[in-house]
Amino acid sequence: MAQRPLCILVCALGGEGGGVLAEWLYTAAVRAGHAAQATSIPGVAQRTGATTYYLEIAPAPASTAGSVRPVFSLSPVPGCVDLLVSSELLETVRQAGAGFVSRERTLVISSTARALTVAEKMALGDGRADGAALVAALQRQARAVELLDLGAMAREAGTVMSAVLLGAIAASGVLPLPRAACEEAIRAAGKGVTASLAGFALAFDTMSTRRAQQRQAQALIAEVGAEAGAKASAKASAKASAEASAKVGGAPRPVLVPAELRRVARERVAAYQDEAYARLFDERLARLAAAEAARPGGSGGADEAGAGLVAGAEGAPGPSAAPVAHEATRWLALWMCFDDIVQVAALKLATSRQARVRREVGAARGDIVKTFDHFKPGVPELAGLLPAGFAARLVAWDRARVAAGREPWAMPLKLGTHGLRGTLALRFVAAMKGQRRRGHRFALEQALIERWVTAVERGAREHAALGLELARCGALVKGYGSTNERGKENLLHIVDHLAFDAARPAAERAAAVRAARLAAVADDAGRALDATLVAHGAPARAPREQVVRWFKRRPGEGAATIAGTGD
Question: How far apart are the first and last CA of the chain?
Fold first, then answer.
């Protein structure tokens, strides 16, 4: 009686070599004497989807099958996949949600790396999927799950994801493919052989070591006895889940102790501008810490316990002598390092950025990579570096253009930053840190930061939970352009209308600020925020002025078109 084929589903994102991996697996199976078939199901570009590759391999060599020929399927069947291989954790869970993973049959090999989806990036708050929840979902659905940081292995070996995936597959023991057959398939491809073999070996050895340790643990558990073995198994499972969750790339939220967080934030502020700017950062944090200490009851009082309850609800960094100052640290550093054309130029020139570009395009050591950056600075970007008087006149001129029905002024640029001219142009702009201090944007941002810091300081002196919630409102300021402006407007509206209404108890005001902050990140249109403001007795935000341009209909054309500009 013919045995059912082994079914393998490979899921890869754009540019990760999923097709190459499928070809290697097919070649290795054929070289090992097994009948095989491979098909692909095209997806869409990059992180909006994945391209899947499906293979079926006869478990026994063709030489032992005689006249019996296997019958292969062209596409996977839910619940009938023996091996699911994926290069991205959320994509792995998506395939499990589609039913391809079964608890009785499927081994899952997945990279812990994350490539954020469009929906995750669009969220106004932290829209990332919870890595621990993704891992737990896989463990519930699959027979076994092997999670590896395959992206780090690929970078260490100087190769692509497909090579390390093949190594993990070969070491898993699911397929009847010897290591030599897989390595020969890589050599037969004839491209990037040395690096691919290095990545294959690294993943193979890592997976082999892990499987050996698992076998030793299982043997030890069996010796202890049924009851003790059950307890040890549960403990080992919980530990494995915790370790796998900790390795999930992009999902974990790093927890830094106050001193470490402050050091990292201070270094960023100093690198952004200068040491004097970093001292201003220190002074602002010192004011917040002093405000907490000056509050009746101080740190550790009954009032502080209320703040701790608020903090615990969102996974705060843990106990601290000055929780408000600690919470404000990262948001203050991010706001003080606001994006402008000087910062953009510096980031474009960063060595780490050049290395990342070469890695993403798969450039070898001797390859020449040409990078072209597109910019479109407008009046707000240029006016930000000018003194207030010049900036005001330039902005007024641009607003008059828009009011007259014209597009806002902008200067499209295309710079070849791999060459001397483009690099010098960026270096000239990046060297304008001194001009930043004299510019209109710097003065404006410092004034707004001071309004927020003063509000947090006042709230911390009055009530721990109120100070903490006002500190957390710093998270509303993010991004650039209209998103950044909208975040600052929302923050200041919350501070002005909810934080210091003397007719309401401080604890009630803290709850109102929290509700408004959460509503502000619920939707970018601000409808949830306006409804929350009104519900707590505050006025809704004033409507923003927009310019509407009307286009006359020409004879023979359709109805008139109405186009709006602005937010």
Answer: 68
Query: What percent of the chain has pLDDT above 70?
Result: 83
Residue 512 to residue 499: CA distance in whole angstroms: 8
Residue 536 CB neighbour total at 10 angstroms? 20
**What pLDDT, on a 0 to 100 scale, did the predictor assign at position 161?**
84
| E strand or H helix that includes residue 548 | strand 547-550
Q: Give the DSSP H or E segment for 466.
A: helix 464-472
DSSP letters of 73-105?
A: -SS--TT--SEEEESSHHHHHHHHHTT---TTT
- Calculate Rg over the CA atoms of the chain: 29
Domain spans of the chain, in order of start = 6-246
Contact 83, 106 (CB under 8 A): yes
**Which one, of 491, 458, 492, 494, lies nearest residue 476 by Cα?**
491
**DSSP 3-state of 546:** coil
DSSP assignment of 192-218 equals: SHHHHHHHHHHHHHHHHHHHHHHHHHH
Interatomic CA distance for residues 501 and 495, integer angstroms: 10
Split at pLDDT 50, 70, 90, the class of 561 is very low
Residue 150 and residue 155: Cα distance in Å, rounded? 9
Q: Alpha-carbon distance 304 to 463, whole Å?
A: 8
Q: Give the pLDDT band of residue 459 (cuts 50, 70, 90).
A: very high
Distance of alpha carbon 88 from alpha carbon 346, whole angstroms = 31
The continuous run of DSSP H or E covering 38 comes out as strand 36-41
Torsion of CA 438, 441, 446, 452, to 10 degrees: 170
Q: What is the DSSP code string of 265-318?
A: HHHHHHHHS-HHHHHHHHHHHHHHHHHHHHSTT-TTSHHHHHHHHHHHTTT---
Name the residue with tokens 């969102």. Answer: 314
Distance of CA 536 to the CA centre of its chain: 33
Q: Are 133 and 192 in contact (CB under 8 A)?
A: no
Centre a 10 Å sphere on the Cβ of residue 202 and count the other Cβ atoms it contains: 21
Beta bridge partners of 55: 8, 38
What is the pLDDT averaged over residues 103-110? 91
- Confidence band of 269 (pLDDT split at 50, 70, 90): very high
Which residues are registered as beta bridge partners of 108?
84, 145
- Give pLDDT tens digits for 213-232: 877 777 777 776 655 555 55
Helix H or strand E segment including 243? helix 226-246
Q: Which CATH architecture has domain 6-246?
A: 3-Layer(aba) Sandwich (3.40)
- pLDDT-derived band of residue 288, with 50, 70 and 90 as boundaries? very high
The Cβ of residue 566 has, within 10 Å, a number of other Cβ atoms equal to 11
Identity at 237, one-letter amino acid code = S
Retrieve residue 544's tokens: 């923003």
Q: Looking at the predicted structure, is the pLDDT value of residue 512 above 60?
A: yes
pTM of the model: 0.65
